[in-house]
Amino acid sequence: MKINYLFDRKFAVALLLILGALLAISPAGLRKSMDYSPQQIASSIASRSDHVTAEEVAKWVIDKRPDILIVDIRSSEEYNQYHIPGAMNIPFAKLFEEASLDMLKRNYNIILYSNGETHSGQGWVMLKQMGINNYIMMGGLNYWTKAILNPDPPDDLAADPEILRYQFRKAASDYFNNGGTSVKERREPSDQPEPKPKKLNKFKRQDKMAEGC
Hints:
Elements: H1 9-25, H2 28-33, H3 38-47, E1 51-52, H4 54-62, E2 68-72, H5 76-81, E3 88-89, H6 98-104, E4 109-113, H7 118-129, E5 135-137, H8 140-149, H9 160-176, H10 183-186
Parallel strand pairs: 1-5, 2-3, 2-4, 4-5
């Protein structure tokens, strides 16, 4: 079954309103020190250039990419019920505490996710304003559960790209439903220096369905 991802204009408008409010209450000195202008942030929202797909995240987790830091911003209770293997839990309320910001400022490509996109989008805007580059996982954990953990097979008339996409999702489903990796395994101390962030090599964009917050 083909899953269509509908871009929610209300989501973009909400992020712009959050950005405007932050700019209004920020000290002038902070505004001058911002790494990203309001225009740049608005452009990223419109183009979704700072969004990554669940399929991309699944591939990076399976490949054990050391430059990726996946951040689950849901509550600790939700995180303990289920989370993407290797994800670190920083609840939204603690996202801007000093210890959290110290972690996020390290050499990682940061990917935020929540149940949907609303809360991760709010975090994205606020971190962006602080000069911390980050990405949002499209559709959040709701889409991850539907597409990666429980993918629907394509119909008999599906085109080759859809069949290949399903084959990848099915392989990823088998991997994650049979253990995957753990936070401990991905966060073991190492004598090697922290890797510098690499430019994320993205798949071709595919239409997805976003749900929840």
